[in-house]
Amino acid sequence: MQTTYVMIKPDGVQRGLIGEIIGRFERKGLQLVGMKSIIPSEEIAREHYAVHSERPFFPGLIKFVTSGPVVCMAWRGVEAIKVARNLIGSTNGREAAPGTIRGDFGMDMGFNMIHGSDAPETAEFELNLWFGDSLMEWNQDSINWVYEG
User: Fold this and answer.
1) Structural domains of the chain, count
2) 147 lies in a domain?
3) Residues 6+ apart with CB under 8 A from 67
4) Are 21 and 114 in contact (CB under 8 A)?
5) Is residue 142 part of a domain?
6) Domain-embedded: residue 145
7) In this structure, what CATH number is given to the domain that contains residue 19?
8) Residue 114 in contact with residue 103, Cβ under 8 Å?
9) Which DSSP helix (H) or strand (E) runs through 134?
10) Is the dihedral of CA 106, 48, 26, 86 positive or negative?
């Protein structure tokens, strides 16, 4: 099993999409093993998006992600990173496939509602940054109806 980090950004929270987004991950069969809502500090936002620090959009990105509450989540499942990114859709909502979160609800590149880890190393870094060692271990009985064998 793999665990990935997913964050509903301030625009997704403000638009009242938390339940819809969580429901999509649950219905897909991923297991929620961590969740919290916070208003990110500038420090944690800068650390999270450090890979973009040299890009011209970086200051605006930091201002945006610290502008209100975000919902931080950890989802577990087989190939959870790939599954989550498929549910999320491509970055630009106008180009994202219908049926994806961004394809169904997004119209902008910057206001794209959700972040998902893009690789195992990124997921490990982001999960540690946002959750430390506070992820839950629990048996979800319905998982027996998600995977064969």
Assistant:
1) 1
2) no
3) 10
4) yes
5) no
6) no
7) 3.30.70.141
8) no
9) none
10) positive
Q: Which structural domain, as residue segments, surrounds residue 89? A: 2-134
Instruction: Give the whole-angstrom CA distance, residue 34 versus residue 13.
Output: 17
139 in a domain, yes or no?
no
Contact between 85 and 34 (Cβ < 8 Å):
no
Percent helix, percent strand, percent coil in the chain, to nearest 5: 45, 15, 40
The answer to whether 138 touches 16, Cβ cutoff 8 Å, is no
State the alpha helices, DSSP H only, in the chain: 10-14, 18-28, 42-48, 58-65, 80-88, 101-105, 120-131
Q: What is the pLDDT of residues 9-36, one digit of tens each?
A: 999 999 999 999 999 999 999 999 999 9
Indicate which residues carry an active-site annotation.
115
Model confidence, pTM = 0.93
Return the SS3 of 28. Answer: helix
Strand order in the sheet with 114-116: 31-38, 70-77, 2-8, 114-116
Paired tokens of 17: 């999409």
- The stretch 66-74 carries a mean pLDDT of 98
